[in-house]
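Entry type: protein chain
Record version: 2
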Amino acid sequence: MNISILSILLGLGWKCLLNWALVFLQRSHICRSFLGVFSVSLAVVDTALTLIFTIIHIHSDGHLVLLDMQLTRYHMCLLVQILGHVYSALQWPVVVMASLEHFYTISLQPAASWTKWMVCSLVTILLWNLCTLYIFLWSDFIPVLEDVSHQQMHQCWVSHATEIPQVVSLLFLTLGCAALHAVRSTRLLKNHPLKDQITDQSRSHSRRRFVYQVLRIFLNTWALLLIFLAVLLLLPVGIPSYLGLNVAWLCFLNSFLIAVVLCVVCPASLLAQGLAAAPPDSFCEWRFKFSLAAEET
């Protein structure tokens, strides 16, 4: 898509404001998870990019020189294309790392807060560096620039954020399969001995009830955004790659991955006994109601 430079500046400015507003909203536990640490790093990168864009745009007459190189609108378009591809390359690694962290937090004993913060910071720095190297060394990225002088350049070619529909489709499919497996699990009890059937039915009922609560909590919080994403998947509307990765999307992704991991692991008994806790989430309040008799059975 071909977007004007002024629109890019305005879009980045609003994105920075939204990023820092959500980081401030989650300030109490922003550094307690990988997605929280990554959100801070993304807000910093977006802010730096916006400031660089603004400075170049103000000195678009060509009087801005850095390291004996004259910075013009060509460099603005080149930079936004590079960052857009880096953001796209980060989508799947972020999903994988956040999923592994949530699985570890729910299934195992969590590590100390300062240890977890150090690990999350190192992983965040490593992901940024690896994805940047991937774009420059191994990807087929080729910058697209207009063949005009920088004085006449007022628009930039920007790619679409194609990874967001892929991530949403896969997460919907995973969550749906987990819910379907929990709901239909009682049909597998036909071949079990009668003495084990009561216990298995009780466990299956507890699992179905737990998955139902997970889905209800998630849908009550993110229903409007899910409708928007569904419309986005159906309509041929593209999201610029430099806007595809933002803190609001990471907040939704955090809740979505927590719901998926809870449905797959289904730690109902551990949560009922206080031996496990849901990962930090500023939007979904993961509180569950259990039948203690069913859990004891």
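Comment: The two ends are 59 Å apart (CA to CA).
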